[in-house]
Each structure stands twice: as C-alpha cells, then as structure tokens.
C-alpha cells in the first residue's frame, strides 16, 4: 500500500514538472499563439428550427439564409482564420423537443451561441435552457414574453419583430381604413394571444368594436365549422392571427366561404413562404405585417446586397421574411464576434449591445433594456395579378419606420433602469 | 358573442355534416380493410397523402381534376395491390399486431419518400374552376366544392354498397370475412379476395386524399392528423362496420361543428370525449362485432 502511494505520487510529480516545463517554454515561445489557435475549434452556432410540421416551409428558408451568413463570415476570413459553422436541429415545433435539442447543442455539440426558433412558445423553452447555461440566444421569431423581465436575461436577444410592434403597425393601418367592427380568428397559443392583445390595445385609439374571438388549436386542418359563425358576425375586418400551414388553410377556406366579398381579412404577419405554398387565390387581397420583403431592394443597398448573395447561393431564389431574420440573427452574432475579437460571452454581449447595423432591411439596433431589435415594420398586401415572377407575391403598402415609441416601454416590461 | 340565429345553427349543422362526409370517405376504406382482413392499416393516412400528390403530379403534367378523379384511385389501388401482395400477405395468420406494425412503418417510409421526391414544403392545389365560390343553400352561403365532396362521398358509398351486396364477388367477400376456412373449402381463392379488398380500400383512401387537396393544399404530413380522427370514427362506428363508419363519421362531424359553435377551443377534444363515452356505454361501437380483435 505505502509503496504504491509513493509511486503514484512520484509519477504525478514528474508529470507536473514536465507539463510546467513545457508550459514555461510555450509561454515565451512565438509558437504559442498558433498552437492555441489550432486547439480552438470552429465557432459553432446552434440552430434549432421546426423543419418538420406546419411551419416547415418557413423553417427551411431560415436554414438557407443562416447558412449564407455563415458562408459570408467564413469567406471573409472568419475570426482571424477561425471558421464558423451552423449546427441545425429540428425542434419539431415542440417546446419539449426544442429544450432537449438545445441542451444537446450546448452539452454535446458545445455550441458557442444559439440562434433560431420559429414559435412564440418554443423560443421561450430554448431561452430557458440558454439563460441557465449562460449561452447567448438570438431569437428569430415573434414573441412579446421574451422581452419581459421575467423571461429576459442578459443572454437573450430578439432579432425578430414582436407581436406588439407587428399588430400595432397592422392595426394602425387597417383600423383607419376598413372599419371598426373587428372579429378575430386566433391560434390558441402564445403567438395568437399576444397578437390579439396587441390589436385590441392599438384598437382603443380607433374605438374598434370587438365582435368576438374564436380560438383554434395549433395545427388545425379544417376551419369549416368556425367560418359560418365568423361570417354571421358580419365584421368589417376579420383578423386571422395564426401562422404557417394554419394560416394557409384558414385563408384558403375563408376564401371558399366567400368571406372576402364583404370583409377585409388582415393578418399580423403574412409569410412569403406560406403565400407561395398556399397559392395566390387563397391570399388574394389579404393585408398583413412583415419584417422583410425582397422587393424593398430598390430602397436599401443592404437589401440588394443580401438578395444578390442569396440569389447567387441558391440559383436565383429570393430570400423570404423569416429567412431574412435568420440571416440578420446569425450575421449580427458573427459581426459581434468579429467586433469583440473573441467568442467570450460577456464581450460578445457588449458588442451586440453596441451594434448599429443595416444588414438587410435598413437601420436596426438592439435596445439596451430588453435586447429587442428596433426596426421597421412593412405593411404588405398579397397580389394575385400582374405578377412578374413566382416571387412577386406582395405589394408594400406602407412602412412603419424604426421607432422605440412603437415598443412597450422598458418600465412596462418590468426592467429596472 | 351574440347572434345565435336559427339560420346559423342550421348552417352549422350542415357544415358538420359536410365535414362528416369527409371523415366518412376517409374512414370507410380503413373500416373495409379491417372488417374483411382484420388488418389495422396504419398506412391509410399515407395512401391518402400519396393520392393527393399523385393528383398534383398528374395535373402538373397537363391532366385535369376530373381525369384525376378516375386515375388517382386506380393508381393508388394498384399500389395498394402491390403492397398487399408483397408486404401484407406473408403476415396473415400471425396475429393482429404484425400487419399493424408493418403498415405503421410503411407509413413513415411513404411520407419520407414523398418528402424526398417533392420536398418538405407544401403545394397549393386550386379548386377546379367551376366548383369555386360559395352558393346560397337557403340558410347561408356554403362553398360549392364542399357540396361536391358530399356528393362524391355518396356516390362512393352507393357504389361500394352495390358491389358488396348485389354482386357475386361481393358475396364472396362477405363470406370470406365471416369464415375464410369454409370459403376456401368451397374452392375460392381467398387470398385473391383479400388482395382485391385491400386494393379497393387503398383506392378509396387515395380518392379521399385527392378530394381533400383543394380544401387544404398538399403536404407530406397531411395523412397524420386525419388518421387519428378516422380511428375515432371507426372505433365509434364499430371496428369493421361500414354502416357504423358512415353513421359515426357524420356524428363526429356534427359534434365537432356544434362544439365549435359554443366552445371552439374544445372542438378537437370533443371527438375524443365522444369516443370515450361511446366506449364506456358500448365498447364494441355502434355496429361492431365483439371479439373481432381477439
């Protein structure tokens, strides 16, 4: 026993000496930097999005545009030669699945940052994991809750619009033009609830009359049993707050029921990918909000550059709204890494907070208190005729310029100044 | 919400029956295959989805919707024949869970193949031009296309009934379902009968998928949601009973519709609540034969 202990003791002493010696040599040697660099792996960005399920069309565009941002970073030399990589996972639009995948990204893949999500509910599940692990998460889908003090952490950023901004902009446009009697058809989860709250809040300024709100479960394939009721309410405006395939089917069936004849349909968000998947007929004349439309390339050089790079990478395809958010989210992260000169979390947070950027849609910045990206909101209308090509789907009716006044105040969100 | 008029309730009832017709059309093939072969076909939703995609493909080649109404069930039926001959047949006599697991796996394979061939994103499927728009049915406006679906379902049911009840081949099918051994002793090739029944069941699934496409567009996962509803319909109607499936399908449609009117959040749950109640009161369903699963 005694001899054994001595032996291991002497072994480790010898190893300690060797290591210390090697370290001392390295510390003074010019090779050190190179060696350390070789040990540093690629910069990994975890990217959980719902590739399968009702939001699949949008999620695939998120991946495409996210890859573009990574490719541009790598082509420009990365972070002193250190390359970045997008680690994509399918969260199946399920908060539990997303939490598991995110944990796996953090623990097994050792990602440096997380960008992603496409659901008001799922992003909160991701955010719970990342804030506990101290990993920066830049969310690229709509949520109000993520700005609020209870869900927010210094690691949380929000590149996407939030429902308050979106419904506010759409409401200000539509309530002034189409009438005061408003009925709602709403997806029964955080996204829908937050949108309706936003519409009702901005509606107060216009004295709208709320005729009723019918809620449907996420992933509904038939709306024929709620549409007669909505039609019987005889609204001036029918506000449909759902997304992805739910939105495609709801608009298609509302068209079949002839609701558009007497009612203007509005949606907080009109997604380019959904419009393409559902066809012109279903979306005809519908007005809604959007974070991005490729057609604004006449207005912004950054949009033109982004579109051209995207077209080049994906044989002529144009980027969509949710794709653009992914591009913005990933690029902001990588630019911050470049600016900070490191992947160190606190330094990257400081760099993100200081960022004034224009990557794809005009000027943007992250508000200090809640890390919400302050940006413009587009009001678009779906086209059904005079379309120049497959991607010519929307007409931009108006633009609400970036303004902190359109966000809830930091006090309202519970952030102490 | 105010404004519950007689017209609205009548329209709602009608919407429920129309929705029920879609459930019936989908569940009937499932029920037919189970009743005759005691095969629980978990790939039924996948055949339905493939039916919609085949229709989409034929139209993209220059075909029209009316042609598809004939071609799609034929093609999907042929595909069904091949599946029965190659995959299902070796499993007869091995217990009910063997074909169940096989078709469950097959449904995944089919969905993945379609994702590979057509992509994960959905496609639009426009309603045929002359069936577009809504018509006044006396109590309110209702989409013309949905009326067409009700009519098509009635035609399929009538044809199926005539085939099973009035033809000599139908007689053999019914006899084969009762007692395959005696039928075999009488010199009938029972395996050929089963082959054809499976083909008919899948052909109806493909037909239903094609009819559903203009209602909701086409996507690889479209068979998944309706499969759950179809199982409720077959269980409530009685596993294997075609008459039961018709009655239960219409009932489920009306229950969903009426729940949507008063408590839309509950609409999805109401189907399963109905199933639970029926199972407690009458475990074999409306017209089910007890002991078919044992």
UniProtKB/TrEMBL annotation, chain B:
Major subcellular location class: membrane
Segments traversing the membrane: 6-26, 33-58, 64-88, 100-118, 144-164, 193-219, 231-257, 269-287
Keywords: Amino-acid transport, Cell membrane, Membrane, Transmembrane, Transmembrane helix, Transport
Compartments it resides in: Cell membrane
Membrane topology: Multi-pass membrane protein
Stretches assigned to coiled coil: none
Protein name (record): Branched-chain amino acid ABC transporter permease
Keyword Transport (UniProt): yes
